[in-house]
Amino acid sequence: METAAHVFNLRRVYMIKKLGLVTLLITLVTLSPGAGLLSWPLGQPTVMAWSEPTYTSTWSESLLTEESPQQGQQQDVQQPEQPQESQTELWTDNEDVPEELPPIDESLLDFERLYGRWYIWTPSTAAGLFSTHTGEYVTHEFTPGVGQGVVVINEDQTYSMSHGAWGGNQVVEGTWRLSHPGEINGERLVAIILKDGITNTDWAVAPSENGGVRLLWAMTWADGSATWIYDSNLYQE
To answer: Which domain holds residue 153?
Structure first.
């Protein structure tokens, strides 16, 4: 019996302590600042309980609220500066536009007038002679012009030629073609190209702007292009 009474008293004490603890917790929650019944001293703001939702305004709302002008007061709004329009120039304003080329003399395009028998004439030349000691001019050496041979151009696209300075009395025959635009050193004319002429070189019978006719030979480069070198004048009797 004493043991049962002792156990009962222990349970009673435990229940009283538990009830007191629960009462204390209820009192603290009721008087907490979050419940609004207890204010912090010295005017400190009230802190909401963790379970109460908080609302945070967006940054744009706060900026509008702080910077918005008062009612009836007009705010000076500074308009952004308009960029100056840049004047766009055509490429022709900065580039040198080539002038229109002058008209071509019809004689430079009339290849049919190159048909016939032409005599090769090497013009006279004068070469200056200088002292081998002082390098000063002494005199000049004159070489008179001389006939070199004949070029015959036929309408059936065949030709024959002889040139004393290159082949002596040798006569070479072959076929000819018309020059391509600008082929003769970029000149605007039509020439007759004698294919595989003297020394197995292409020759050209080409008109000149002064009305004459020239004989040229082709110095061929590795890429197949050619520079046409003046050789002599041509004339007809």
So the answer is: 106-121+148-235
